[in-house]
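Think of the structure tokens as a kind of shorthand, similar to the way a musician reads notation: each symbol stands for something richer, in this case the local conformation of the backbone. In the example below we present two proteins back to back. Begin with the first one, reading the sequence and then the tokens, and try to describe in your own words what changes along the chain.
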Amino acid sequence: MFKEMYDVVVVGGGHAGAEAAAACANMGSRTLLVTMNLQTIGQMSCNPAMGGIAKGQIVREIDALGGYSGIVSDRSAIQFKMLNKSKGPAMWSPRTQNDRMRFAEEWRLLLEATPNVDFYQEMVTGLLVEGTQVRGVRTSLGIEIRARAVVLTNGTFLNGLIHIGEKQFGGGRAGEKAATGITEQLVSLGFENGRMKTGTPPRVDGRSLDYGKLIPQPGDGIPEKFSYLDTPVLKKQRDCHMTHTSPLVHDLLREGFDRSPMFNGRIQSLGPRYCPSIEDKINRFSDKDSHQIFVEPEGWHTVEVYVNGFSTSLPEDVQFNALRSVRGFEKVKFFRPGYAIEYDYFPPTQLKHTLETKLVDNLYFAGQINGTTGYEEAASQGLMAGINAHLKIREQEPFILKRDEAYIGVLIDDLITKGTEEPYRMFTSRAEYRTLLRQDNADLRLTPRSYDIGLAGEDRLRRVLEKEAKANSFIEFFKNTSFKPEEVNPILEEINSAPVRQADKMVKVFARPKVTMSHMLQLAEVSEFVSENQLDRDVLEQAEIQVKYAGYIAKEKENADKLQRLEHIAIPEDFDYNRLKSLSFEAREKLHEIRPVTISQASRISGVSPSDISVLLVFLGR
């Protein structure tokens, strides 16, 4: 069946695997996607939504690089929201509510329409490894598939164990079996592994809810979208809803704590700190009388509802009784109970920045196998692993994004240099250059770089260059065009801003805190310029942000440039840290284990102090 060798075999068809396969194929690699179930490619295992705080920025970056997640999200969206709009643009984060069935269908159809992608449904139980080089995979039927590179994106399937109360059974997802064999082989090759936990809430029948008692949560009045391409903008949207737990609900949940796998010792592994189960919330925040529950529809036409905020592994009868005491859920009917799942992961400090493993050449890990949580984090790793697998087998330079270039760069750098002992989730606070890494400029930051490696197409690059040119032209217009006080003062008076006494450049007025683009468009000259140059909403937004936040952007760029000097000081690959007795014992241990490539990377390793960096700099003659 598989006599010819593939360039890349991708194992797993979730968000990471789908992006990895698409990237390899679109760059020209002959790619095979092997998954246990072809019907669940791109499946939303948890909530039916994409994006959110920092995650929305990642989806925009994936799209700017030529990935598919933004396109799929737009085509399957049922609601759009720009979160944190009341804060500065560095915090604005797009989010879609999605039709779960359409989301998976769109992923499948997009991959099927991608040349160079083949599909095969079966469990991969092992790797073909010769010396320190991966040569392909072996399936449960004993079939050997040869490949020049392999990308593992196994999600929660590696020795997955599902918990519901005191019951436990093997599975990678509810209704799907676990994957076995790979963990054991990787450990035999010298890899370290661990266990992590995640959970999911019950899904319920929307027809059994009393929506009159729930608080509507509509989408934005003027919805945007994720992709920079011509994907559809929502013309209608579905509301989400909100309700709250109560002391009664908490008491009913506590009755099952003695049967909770979290509290009786059955689950030893750590779950995501920032997405705790409902029992964990009640236990950790015992002073709170209620917690928010979000009622999220799973699609345009299905009645299935996702109960966001009620993730649990308590016994099904406890889940049911407690949820029936939530306002609006008095007659609720379950589609399926919530559950927790434990699975194997491999500490990501065992990887290079390309996501290639340090122990086995041409073997890449992406997604939850690296200890992350979230569709977006997984998809971005899959994309980067796919890109680098393609480049490596063609002996081309690796593609690595730095911390000041992308949230994806922050994510991968955090994983490689710091590792993680709990499911890693991206936040804006993790990015020290978040003013540079906004969701609105992901295309300007990343599309030219992606085009250079052959992933982003001509159409994407043309759009970016056109947007950049128009935004720059508009900014120059503000810098070079003077206003008349009699035209500007009525606008300033309206927003309680001090009047001007003499003519000056428009940029001076525009830079004031309360003055927005809508105010500037009231000036005839500005309105005419926009009309004549056919400037769209994206260009107007880009120009406004760059004018109003010019000082912040320049300062952050200066800080990033200073740090970049350390990025260029390389550390030899075989450097012997034990020779430097001035290094702390912890620094020597961590540096030897992680093998940082540059001084900058070394400075971000937990346990490596500034004095340790000084020692390294002196030794390297800097």
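Once you have a description of the first chain, move to the second and do the same.
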Amino acid sequence: MRNFVRVLRMSWAYRTRLIISVIAAACVAVFWSLNISAAYPVLVVLSKNQSLQQWVDQQIDEYERRAADKVKLKRADELRGERQRLDENPTAPDRENTERRIARELAALEKELGGYNNKAWLYRWLKTSVIQYLPDDPFRTFAWIIAALVVGIAVKGVFEFVQESLIGAVVQRTLFDFRNQFFRRGLHQDLKQLGEAGTTELMSRATNDVEQIGTGLKMLYGRVMLEPLKMATSLIAACVISWQLTVMFLAVVLVAVVALNKVSRSMKKAAKKVLERMSELYRVLREAYDGLRVVKAFTGESRERRRFRAANEDYYKKTVRVINIDAAVGPLLETLGVLSVGLALLAGAYLVLSKSTHLFGIRMVDDPIGPEALLTLYMFLATIADPVRKLSSVYTKMQSGMVAADRVFALYDRVPAVGANADGPVVPRHAKGISFRNVCFSYTPGSPILNDVNLEVAAGETVALVGPNGCGKSTLLGLLPRFYDPDHGDILIDGVSLRAANLRSVRKQLGIVTQDTVLFDDTVLANIAYGRHGATDAEVEAAAKAAHAHEFIVTLPQGYQTRTGDMAASRLSGGQKQRIALARAILRDPRILILDEFTSQIDGESEQKIQEALRTFVKGRTTFVITHRLSTLELADRIVVMDGGRIVATGKHADLIVNSPTYRRLYDTQAFGDLAGKPAA
């Protein structure tokens, strides 16, 4: 509930619309009861074949006659006289009991006679304010009432439209703001946290779960605002006819509320499981479609079908449980509602048929009621039951919204381990060197990836990192842009610790090209310019030429304006994508360049051209290269050999081949595809 309230606070920014919607809902409720109250004059006209003028005159005469009842007036005078005599005789026997009896009887008489006078006044006001403007003919009166009812329903519809429209706008605007904030929080999470949550889980919570929150908000601001107001106006009107019968009805309604509370607990648990299964369904879909090439190559279609069917069946079962709970609530509450209305109707029917005012010795009405009043009371009670029934489905949907809010905020509230340090020292333009000091790191506790790594790199130096798979090369360079922070040790750029430095000032000096190329669903031009906002077309083209990407880009259907995302990316080979990514890094003009297997999918001829371009480009830049190709190692001023998360040797190729067993083993097993001038086996 607490997290759902947090979303409500976000919607408070649009309180003007909310306030207007509440006013509109109040108007809907008022017209709702007024429209129902039209049943009473209709029943009067149809049952008595009288015009309303005749009927109201009859009611005025009746209540004036009752108020002028001589017997009751005489009895009241007698009681007043008896009280006066009692006051004059302080020593009268049993004085206190007599005084209480006189006061009780006189109060009852005065209340009864005063009630008659009040009702006579009310009918006189009704006659002069409303009824005198209606026709004398009963049929024409009936036609006027029907016309007024149609107008009332139309006006109510206008207010309903206003309320629904405003609520819809507030809910969607709140979700718009919330999605933006959730996405912003997600972008600021560090990669370790994002890896733990998983992309599919983030997508599920940002889409499906947020929509569930929106449904809960709409129910709260819509029906939860409107239905209780409709209940209140109907309740007031029912109490005017007989508050005792209305209380009898409400006693059964309380039973429905208790039942609803019990059902809601089961609903909350079931809704949580449905959302969890939806996330699992997203995960299976993403894995299957992203890995479709592997699925087809290894004939895994049947396995993926079974996996998806299992996840889909699990989701189906949990969803059906929610549907069954939701479906059971309506009939249950409807039965209780009919029971409560039926009891009130039975009690009222007894009072009408027996012309009595008491039931089981309890006064139920001040005066005997007629069938018209009883049927109108029944209609009001029925209209109280209808909002209760509607609120039952609202409550279950709000439970789903609350569960979704808990799931979304579980990710929303995570504090990134890698802080931006907006107030930290700004790292100036890199010109001194980079130091890795006693760096240790592990993705999961107890499974170290890096152990006590020490490395000094001079500004402008090109360092190549080599070693067997899993030795920690990519992880070490991932610490430089602070994708992660070391568990122990420190990394310094020009003497400034990365932990304390302004993170944005560090990353602005970095250019990164990885083996897994990422292209956004945008044009080739925009993908290259992603590295530097405001770059001109000429600068983009120059970077593409330096990366040897210009030649194939101009052959694309729209050249630099060709889109590269989704299906459009299938027309690009892996090597072409890597060259676009390299052009992006070149355009950024970084002081520190990280190349992680950046030529893994590029053919030999293109690689040779890129090497020539890089020899010029890396001059004056601190460059880190991870590679398995000797031609790339030739760019390096120094080679760093890693094994088991440690640096085991550094030096030139000629020295390492003699002095480093690890490097020599890599050479002998042809881990470098072209070390011996021949393709790898």
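Compare your description with these statements about the second chain. The first strand starts at residue 358 and ends at 359.
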